[in-house]
Amino acid sequence: MTQKLVELYNGNTIPALGLGTFRVENNDECREAVKHAIISGYTHIDTAQIYNNEEKVGQGIKEGLEESGLKREDLFITTKLWMSDYGRENVQLAYEASLKRLGLDYVDLYLIHWPGQDTALISETWKAMEDLYNEGKIKNIGVSNFHVNHLEELLKQASIKPVINQIECHPYLIQKDLRAYLEAQKIVAQSWSPLMNGQILEDEVVKEIANELGKTPAQVIIRWNIDENIVVIPKSVTPSRIEENLNVFDFELSDSQLSRLNALNKDERIGPDPETFSAE
C-alpha cells in the first residue's frame, strides 16, 4: 500500500489520507485508535485544541511510533488553534500548550480553526502564526472553515499564504466555487467529516458505485476525495474500519462515477456555517 502524497505550495508534502479524531474522547480508546492507525500504515493524524484529546492522541503517536519502528519525522501531525486563544499575544502560548499535551517538539501543520466574525483579530492571529513558522517552530500553517471572503481578507494582510484550508466537504457539499478559488491560490483543500457521520454511506448512488467496484461505501467516498485532489481525514476508533478506510489506493473512480457522485451535491452541511459561527 503506497500512500499518496500531496505537494503543498511551499514544497512540503502531506499524506492524502489521515486519521481524524473529532469527537473522540480523551481516553484509551483514542490512544488505541491512533496507535492502531500508525501501525496499520497511517502517517497523518489530525487533532485540535478544542477536541480536548491531545494528550491521548499524543500517547497513541508515541506508542504507534514505538511499535511501527517509524520515526517522528515520518509522521504528519496537525492540530488547531481555538478561538479563545486568537490574538497575536496568545498564539505562541496556545501552541506550546498543545505541544506539551501532545508530547511533541513541533507539529507539521497548525490551523486557525474558524474564521469568526472579527477580521482584524484573524489578521493579528495570522501574524502570530507567521512568526511561529518563520522561527521554524511549525512546518506549515493554514486555516480551517474559511470561505472565499475570509481568505480574501486574510490574504490582504498576510505575508505567508495558508498551505491548506480544512473544510466540510463531501458529495452532498462539494464546495465547487471555494475549491476553484483554493486551486487558483495553490491552497490545498482538506475535508473534515467526509463520511457525514455515516449519513452519506446510505446513499443509493454511493452504494451502487461501491457494488460496481467491490468496495465499501466509505471507501468510495474516501476515494472520491483523493480523486478530486482533496486531502481527507475520516474518523474511526474501530480497528477494522481504520484499516478499511486506508485500503483505497488500489483503485480509482472512473470519470462517470465521479460525475455521478458530484451530481449528488445539494449544499447540505452537517456542521456550522462559517459565515455565522462563533464560539459564544
Automatic annotation (TrEMBL):
Q: Which SUPFAM superfamilies match?
A: NAD(P)-linked oxidoreductase (SSF51430)
Presence of the UniProt keyword Ion transport in the record: no
Q: Which InterPro entries match?
A: AKR (IPR020471), Aldo/ket_reductase_CS (IPR018170), NAD(P)_OxRdtase_dom_sf (IPR036812), NADP_OxRdtase_dom (IPR023210)
Q: Does the keyword Nucleotide-binding apply?
A: no
- Domain NADP-dependent oxidoreductase residue range list: 17-265
What UniProt keywords apply to this chain's record, in alphabetical order? NADP, Oxidoreductase
Family the UniProt entry places it in: Belongs to the aldo/keto reductase family.
Can you name this protein?
Answer: Aldo/keto reductase
